[in-house]
Amino acid sequence: MACCRTIWSRARTLAPTSRPMSSAVEGIFTGGKARTPLPALLPTVNLFQFMRETGKWGEVADKVALRCSTEDFRPITYKELEGRVSATAHALRGIGFQKGDVLNVHLHNCQQYVVTFLACAQLGGVASTSNPAYVAAELANQHVDSGSKFVLSSKAYEAVVMAAAAESGLSDKVFWVEDTGCFANAKATDEPPPEPDQPIDVMKDLLTLPYSSGTTGKPKGVMLTQRNLTVNILQCMEASSVTSDDTLIGVLPLYHIYGMTVLMCYALVQQSELVLMSKFDPAAFLDAMSKYGVSVGFLVPPIILFLAKHPMVKQYDLSRLQWIMSGAAPLDPAMQESLSSELGVPISQGWGMTELSPIGCVDDCFRPAWGSSGALATGTEGLILDDEGKALPAGEVGELLIRGPQVMQGYLNRPDATAETIRPDGFLNTGDIAYRDDENRLFYVDRLKELIKVKGFQVAPAEVEGRLLELPQVADAAVIGVDDERAGQVPKAFVVRAADAPSLTDEQVVEALRGSLAEYKLPIYVEFVDAIPKSPSGKILRKDLRARE
Predict the structure, then answer these.
(1) CB half-sphere exposure, 459, CA atoms < 13 A
(2) What is the reported pLDDT for 193?
(3) How many CB atoms lie within 10 A of CB 123?
């Protein structure tokens, strides 16, 4: 087809696959028989153009694309969505937004989130998404580090946003979704979207800049290009089973890469109906699932646990639910099988990370292997290495490395961290311990990284420790993650009291941290100890702390 020559480019041009091969070449594996290859041609257009053309929105113009709880679930058709994105792109251009400019989107799930993200993509801009739970200091740090020029938010977060904007110099560049004149509320137009002021290089130009803690300290900007996301959507399309007949519940936050790519973008490319929830409210969530006939749930373990265990669920008709994909945190095999049995629908697992846009592997939606996250996504290569860097065969446990077109370009302003994470041969060190079976399905054993995952959100122990050590009543501190049935993990702090604070309590410690850390980063447990175990070089021996649990 002639049009494909302008929309797609050959897969062999992808940078990750042109890098030198690893010395452990004999240990490289792929998704094998579970996966078909990526198309010979890959997208060369921006995300918005890719979604409406690949998704053939023109053929389903009157079909409902989107509903949102903040708008009383008013249906938005694919035609209206396309017109809204075009109008928002024109409005953004009108305020001076140009290719390469960074827009901080600090919002809960809402229709303005979707249209703004896609309009930003059309203009060659960069959407830097942030968690509305952030305190002012955290948000200001992201403004400055990302080089944000504009902020889109809600007046629900006005105090935090304005305090952060004052610190980052953006006080006159904040726009509120509640204002009718906000660019995100531009009424749908039949006009085509504006072209970017400069050509977009989908291989190099960033599309989004979510922040990930990685393994150390402050969150780092993960540089994801237009191509990273369009290819990862193609990988979702090959591995998963969403169709135009499906209705998806959108409770995953869109600022999280799981919600951004796997939910928002993938659902709309597949011509599905997306029912967005601004937050997880049990009754409202169940009512929406029942009323709109939700058939597919991209969820996280705490919500799956709620669906299987909470007595109020039996009051709602969830009979149209066909399958659930669990991500962001692992489900152990027994729990996965038990929940699937109780709900009467298959529950499969996928695995990924922000640095992978995010999909690394996905299990079969209807025939899951308990405890497995499935085979590697199409076009993806894996290695499992031991402590000495030797490639391991099937059945042996080691650190997982990933190479593929969905791998990030690196960490913004952090060449040191980038070099530590992406090897010269293009393989990304995931920091996860795993093994594969004879069919190349992956099973995750533990996290090599120190990162704590609370309901899918990342918490770096070093960041919490840093805030603890700023308290005058604390002489020393260490933080680990401990298992929690609902959250997956929660932070636990080990604290050495300062000599002049012998009566310091756990409640006082947590309260003192509230102004500097988001709620999900606060320690749920505080244990006072005489000393923090450390190696001769001063490294905290977290394994010794975990052994106490």
Answers:
(1) 32
(2) 97
(3) 26
